[in-house]
Amino acid sequence: QGLDGKFVVLYAGNLGLSQGLEQILAAADLLRANREIRFVFVGDGASRASLMVSCDAAPQPSGQGTKMWM
Fold first, then answer.
1. How far is the first Cα of the chain from the last one, in angstroms, to the nearest whole number?
2. What is the pLDDT along the chain (70 residues), one digit of tens a residue?
3. Given CA atoms 46, 52, 53, 59 in this order, what sign does their dihedral have?
4. Which residues lie across from 38 on neighbouring strands?
5. What pLDDT score does 45 carry?
6. Does the reported pTM lie above 0.90?
7. How many CA atoms lie within 13 A of 58 on its CB side?
8. Of the candidates 27, 19, 23, which has an alpha carbon nearest to the alpha carbon of residue 48?
9. Using N-to-C axis directions, what is the helix angle for 48-57 and 21-30, rounded to 10°?
């Protein structure tokens, strides 16, 4: 699952309760079918575990590959 040639939406920083990361998840859900866009989260914080669960539970289009966590 490379990122070469893809449009990458990157969030790097605190994965905390007050960062509004649910808005990024909502955008990712709306754009899920677009194979040219990848959402990448880099960081740690109080919301990391729940964010990972939410992302892992979201259905992926065929051929999309696995999610990327750093």
1. 14
2. 578 999 999 999 999 999 989 899 889 889 988 989 988 889 999 999 988 888 877 766 554 544 555 5
3. positive
4. 8
5. 92
6. no
7. 21
8. 19
9. 10
38 near 8, Cβ under 8 Å? yes
The three-state DSSP-derived secondary structure of the chain is CCCCCCEEEEEECCCCCCCCHHHHHHHHHHCCCCCCEEEEEECCCCCHHHHHHHHHHCCCCCCCCCCCEC
Tokens representing 13 are 């920083």
- Residue pair 62/33 in contact (Cβ under 8 Å)? The answer is no
State both tokens at 7: 């449009």
Which of 69, 65, 70 shows the shortest CA–CA distance to 32?
65
What amino acid is encoded at 55 in this protein? C
